[in-house]
Amino acid sequence: QVQLVESGGGLVQAGGSLRLSCAASGRTFSRYNMGWFRQAPGKEREFVAAITWSGRSIDIADSAKGRFTISRDSAKNTVYLQMNSLKPEDTAVYYCAGGEYGGSPTGYAYWGQGTQVTVSS
Prior knowledge:
Number of helices: 0
Radius of gyration: 13 Å
Number of strands: 11
Oligomer: single chain
Mean pLDDT: 94
C-alpha cells in the first residue's frame, strides 16, 4: 500500500508559477511509476505528466509541454510538478498517482486526495 499526499496548490495569477509536491509513504516509493492528473469542474480527469520509477522516461501532456516539468526525489519519497506560465484553463484539482506509467487514470492504483490550483486572469 502506498499513501500519497499532495501539497503546494493555491491561487496564482495568470503567468505565475506553482510547484506541487506529492509525498509518498508506505511501500517502496522508488519502485512505482508516478503521474499527475487534474480534474476541472464538470470535466473528466485528464493526464498531465508521468515519470518512470527510474526517472529516465517522462511524458508531458501537450497542453503542458514547455510549461510544466515533472521530477522525483527518491531519497525524499517525493514527486514534483513544476508549473510555469500558468493559464486560467489550468485551474483544476491536481492529483498525484502511483502505479503504471502512462496517460490513463485506470493504470494507477494509488491516488492522493488532490490539491486545488486556481489561476486567475
